[in-house]
Each structure stands twice: as structure tokens, then as C-alpha cells.
Specification:
Layout (H helix, E strand, L loop, with lengths): L5 H4 L13 H8 L3 H8 L13 H18 L5 H11 L11
Helix pairs in contact: 2-3, 2-5, 3-4
Length: about 100
């Protein structure tokens, strides 16, 4: 049986629980509790700092995060999530543009 970190070894470009994300501010802006945002974000696979995500990674991450967050707050829209995440993402929207 694999250890708790085994799933992450398969995707070395994944930064689990990115410590640079301002969880309190993001969750407040989205109208969810911090633990709800963290639980949803645990399934997201961000590119490492300084690296651009692929288009496939951007779309997959968005699908996971938006669907999960909408279960916590049905009022969250795609555009609303983009606005909040861009506001709090190092580098803003430009940092999310696929390579």
C-alpha cells in the first residue's frame, strides 16, 4: 500500500496546498468558508511557481475547482471565480495563461 505522499510523486509539477495562496481572502471573496476552499483546492493541480500551466491543466483545474465551490456556494459563477482568483494569484491573470 502506498504512503500518503505517493499520489503526489506521480505529478512532480504539483504543489500540494500551495502555501502562497491567501486562503482567508479568497474564501471571503467567494463567500465560502476557508476549509471549504481548501477542500476544493486539494483536487487542483497548479503548475509550479514560475511555470505556465498547459491549456489542458487550466481547463481541468477550473472544472474541478468551480464544480466543488458551487456545491458550497451556488452563486459562484465562472467569471466570478476568475475575478477572485486573478485578484489573489501571484502575477494575476497573465500568470494563468497557458504556455
Amino acid at each position: 500500500m502506498a504512503g500518503p505522499g505517493a499520489a503526489f510523486a506521480a505529478d512532480p509539477a504539483f504543489l500540494p496546498n500551495d502555501p502562497k495562496r491567501p486562503v482567508e481572502a479568497i474564501s471571503r471573496d467567494l463567500g465560502v468558508r476557508p476549509e471549504q476552499f481548501v477542500a476544493c483546492f486539494n483536487e487542483v493541480r497548479p503548475a509550479p511557481n514560475g511555470d505556465r500551466p498547459t491549456a489542458a491543466r487550466v481547463h481541468a483545474n477550473k472544472a474541478v475547482l468551480l464544480g466543488c465551490l458551487q456545491r458550497a456556494n451556488p452563486a459562484i459563477t465562472n467569471d466570478g471565480l476568475d475575478t477572485v482568483m486573478d485578484r489573489h494569484r501571484p502575477g494575476g491573470r497573465e500568470a494563468q495563461r497557458p504556455r
